Amino acid sequence: MSTGPMDLGPTSRAVADNLRRLREARGLSLRALSADLKQLGHNLSADALNKIENGRTPEAGTEPPKNVRRIDVDDLTALAAVLGVNPNALLLPHQGSGSIDLTGVGRVDATIVWAWAEGRRPLTVPEHDDGTANADFQRYARPLGIRNYNRTPASRAAHFEDSGGRGYYQRGQDGKLHEVSTGEPVEFDQHGNHDD
Prior knowledge:
The radius of gyration is 23 Å and the shape is elongated. The longest helix has 16 residues. By secondary structure, the chain is mostly helical. The strands form two sheets. It has a two-stranded antiparallel sheet. The protein starts with 9 loop residues before the first helix and ends in a 17-residue tail after the last strand.
C-alpha cells in the first residue's frame, strides 16, 4: 500500500480546482457547502470536501497535500446542483482556449472538448468524414428528442429514421410546411400529430 499522495489524473485535478473556484465564488465555507448538500439529501462533510479540494493542481514548487479524497459521480452531481452549474463546469478545466489535458486522451483543443462535453460534437472526427461521426455521436450520446443533427446526408438520414420517416420540414412560399426530401406538403392534426 502506497503511503504517498494519491495519484490523481487531470479530470480529478480539474474537479478539485473547480470545486474550490466555485465554492469561493459563491462565498461558501466548507461547512456551509456541506450544509447545503445535506439539505439536498447528500451527505458530504466539510472534511471530505477539504480532502477533495486538496487534489487541486499544486502550485509550482510546492508538494501536493497527502490527505486527498477522490470524488464519485454522486458527489459530483450533487455538488454541481448545489453550486448551480452543470457537471461539466466541475469536470473540465475552466478555460475556453488553448488545450486541455483530458483523462485517457491527452491534450485536446479546449473548444472541441467543451463542445464534446456539451453533446454538440464527437471528440474526434475521422479525416474525410461524410458526417457519419456526428450522426453516430448524436444517436448514441443523446436521447431521442434532444439530438442535434446537422445538415450532412448522414445526419439527415439519421434524423429521418428517428422521426419515423418524416424527415425535415420547411415552410414553402405557399406558407405550408413541406417535407424537404420529397417536397410533399405536410399536414398536422390539432394535437400536432403528422397526418400520414
